[in-house]
Amino acid sequence: MAEQAKASGPLPVVPFLRIPAEGAPYLEARCCGKCGAIFLGERENCSKCGARGELEPKRLANEGTLYVYSIVHRSFPGIETPYVSCIVDLEGGGTVKGNLIGIEPDPAKIRMGMPVRTVFKVAPRKDAEGNEYLTYYFEPR
Ligand SMILES: [Zn+2]
């Protein structure tokens, strides 16, 4: 494996997390100029309407609502459980999977449709080269 220089700041944990030189990080999707469909990740063609070369970057809102969640009790070694895995519908479009923090992993406390916001934090673990990663979570607002 090639030696990699350690990055000067945290790296995005996923390609659709943008870290601008100035200002706050944000999530970025691709939006179809023909039909308005929104996708996470790089792609050339719209899988909703079939348009080619019409996808443009779209900055996603940090506010949304909880669409669905699952409380995870078993995970990989070293991953603290329980935690709340969720899917959030962001205002203005975009549906994103992530983890819900800032609330007890208790079905009595978590409400479908509750308002949430995206928050960005440095992940607790580094990779083998010592790089830090910036990740995103959702929390109640
Ligand atoms: Zn389309």
Report on this model:
- The protein is an all-beta fold and 141 residues long.
- Helix content is 0%, strand content 42%.
- It contains no helices and 10 strands.
- The protein has strands at residues 11-12, 17-18, 26-32, 38-40, 55-59, 63-72, 83-90, 95-100, 115-122, 133-140.
- The strands form 2 sheets. Strands 1-10-9-6-7-8 form a 6-stranded mixed sheet, with no helix packed on it. Strands 2, 3, 4 and 5 form a 4-stranded antiparallel sheet that branches.
- The model has no long low-confidence stretch (mean pLDDT 93).
Portion in strands:
35-45%
Structural class call reads: mainly beta
What's the SSE pattern? EEEEEEEEEE
The helix tally amounts to: 0
Bound molecules: zinc ion
Question: Main sheet: which strands, in order across?
Answer: 1-10-9-6-7-8
Beginning-to-end CA distance, first to last residue: 43 Å
Query: Rg to the nearest angstrom?
Result: 17 Å
Mean pLDDT: 93
Parts with pLDDT < 50 across at least 5 consecutive residues: none
List keywords for this structure.
141 residues, mainly beta, 2 domains, six-stranded mixed sheet, four-stranded antiparallel sheet, 10 strands, 0% helix, binds zinc ion
Blueprint of the fold:
Layout: E1 11-12, E2 17-18, E3 26-32, E4 38-40, E5 55-59, E6 63-72, E7 83-90, E8 95-100, E9 115-122, E10 133-140
Parallel strand pairs: 1-10
Antiparallel strand pairs: 2-3, 3-4, 3-5, 6-7, 6-9, 7-8, 9-10
Bound molecules: zinc ion.
Short summary of the structure?
This protein has 141 residues and is an all-beta fold.
